[in-house]
Amino acid sequence: MSECNISIIVNGEQHELTVEPRTLLVSALRDELGYTGANVGCETGRCGACTVRENSKTIKSCTRLAVQADGSEIETVEGIADNGDLTTLQEQFQEQHGLQCGYCTPGMLMTADTFLRENDDPTREEIREAIEGNLCRCTGYQNIVDAIEATADQLGGQR
Amino acid sequence: MYTNDFEYYRADSVDDALTLLSDHAGAELVAGAHGLLPRMKTGDESPPALVDIGQLRGLDMIEEDDDGTDLSIGALATHAEIADSETVRQRASVLADAAAELGDPQVRNGGTIGGNLAHGDARSDPPAALLALDGSLEVRGLDDKRTIDATDLFEGPFETAVADDEIVTGIRIPTIDDAVSGYRKRRDPLSGYALVGVGVWLRTDGETIEEARVAVTGATTTPARLPAVEDELEGEAITEDTITAASAKAGITVDDGAFVSDVQASAEYREHLLTIDTERALYDVIDISQ
Ligand SMILES: Cc1cc2nc3c(=O)[nH]c(=O)nc-3n(C[C@@H](O)[C@H](O)[C@H](O)COP(=O)(O)OP(=O)(O)OC[C@H]3O[C@@H](n4cnc5c(N)ncnc54)[C@H](O)[C@@H]3O)c2cc1C
Ligand code: FES
Ligand code: FES
Fold first, then answer.
1. Start and end of every 2Fe-2S ferredoxin-type domain (chain A) (predicted)?
2. Domain spanning B179-285: which superfamily?
3. I want to staple B193 with a disulfide (CB 3.0 to 4.6 A). Which of A138, B48, B53, B123 is the partner?
4. 3.20.19.10, 3.30.200.20, 3.10.20.30, 3.30.43.10: which CATH number matches B7-52?
5. What are φ and ψ of residue A64, in 5° steps?
6. Which of B1, B2, B106 minimises the CB distance to A48?
7. What is the pLDDT of residues A111-133, one digit of tens each?
8. Based on the structure, what is the number of domains in chain A?
């Protein structure tokens, strides 16, 4: 069994760790570093529950090896709230009932947060396309789209 | 879900990667891991070592030649970068379409064009675009470099002409001004890959189709051009009759037994869909106004 030393920044904090090459990024985040925000749904790259940002881009952390992320900057859902205060997006997920069991929520939030950085005035159709890689088995998506739309409305292009 | 154990090496240049490949028997390259890792998880592949080229600099550029005749795209350009590139949209829209239709936003950030083409997954979208554009791969080995034409690339399911000890450094696409192209995808509802994907490229003078290239992915065991459709289009006036006649030839171009049959669609149904989607792909790119 081989091992590698890697160094990754997670939510602004530098971490050095030793992993087997086959360790998935999501497993390193959850099991080695305690960032349990990224969930493991399917482990096949379909459901998006494991979505994190790697160097500002959303990826599915079950379809990356931890060793591939050596030297990268990772952001997980734990990092998006401002000193513990919920962001508008998080508040709107609550307001609009954008979650039921909540399993998909961390991934949805990472995708939506990133999407709203690129498009601050999206149509509902664009929102649906943006969350294409995030499956939700509870809400039927309607309220999730509402939450993202309401966030865009509330922030009104000020991001 | 853990894969089998393997050794991991990160290359710091193309030469370094080639040396690592030759030093470690059975080693495989990894770029985005979006083709390889799913297959390692299911045990379909179990390389003893991976050579990571994902972080190499300078292999992700998208640029036009000085005289504007060729488009070069680095092997590490991601699907998202290609889908968002204004240059690709203008010069080779079939490739921009294929990249934009691939997977979902996260997958498009994760996977690379070089990895996609080297992987040889017959359900992939970019192969139909590369074939329709008559593009080629730039490939390097330890002692030489060569070019692989799109038509020679796809040899079988997960088999391509890229050798185990070679690296795809980029793709090259000839472009001309009076060409139109586009990609039409019918998604497999389960996997999101192409159940049928058709790439078309046409050069016209506004009235007559002077040159045509039409390619299929997803429906057949390897992505392929459809010469019977192309022959039927070339030299003909741009009319509904031309499109109908050409699309009707879509199935006959494909060898017996080459249509994929699985739980999603029988070979017969895929052949039927190919005819319909060829017709739609042609209507997508040409304007019939009479
Ligand atoms: C959930 C999900 C959905 C997807 N949906 C689609 C889809 O709808 N359509 C589609 O077309 N694809 C789809 N894909 C696959 C696509 O994302 C990948 O880009 C592609 O198959 C592989 O690219 P990669 O960079 O990840 O390559 P890797 O997985 O890193 O490598 C794939 C293979 O190519 C070799 N390789 C990689 N780079 C090079 C190189 N430069 N030179 C030589 N060999 C190389 C590797 O050794 C390996 O054998 C999907 C993937 C996932 C996980
Ligand atoms: S757990 Fe990563 S996509 Fe489902
Ligand atoms: S809230 Fe349960 S999966 Fe989305």
1. 4-80
2. CO dehydrogenase flavoprotein, C-terminal domain (3.30.390.50)
3. B123
4. 3.30.43.10
5. -135, 140
6. B106
7. 999 999 999 999 999 999 999 99
8. 2
Element (H, E) at B203: strand B194-204
H or E element: which one contains B156?
strand B154-156
Q: Is A62 in a helix, a strand, or coil?
A: helix
Is residue A45 less than 8 Å (CB to CB) from chain B? yes
Question: Cα of A108 to ligand 3 centre, how many Å?
Answer: 9
Reported confidence tier of residue A159, pLDDT bands at 50, 70, 90: very low
Could you tell me the residue range of the domain that residue A36 belongs to? 4-79
Pocket test for ligand 2, best of A36, A43, A131 (most atoms within 8 A of CB): A43
Average pLDDT value over all residues in chain B: 95
Residues of chain A in contact with residue B105, where contact means CB-CB under 8 angstroms, are 58, 111, 115, 130, 132-133
Q: Are B185 and B269 in contact (CB under 8 A)?
A: no
- For residue B52, which residues of chain A lie inside 8 Å, CB to CB? 67-68
ipTM over 0.85: yes
Fold of B62-174: 3.30.465
> What is the predicted pLDDT for the residue at A157?
57
* Residue type for position B31: A
Q: Do B144 and B165 touch, CB atoms closer than 8 A?
A: no
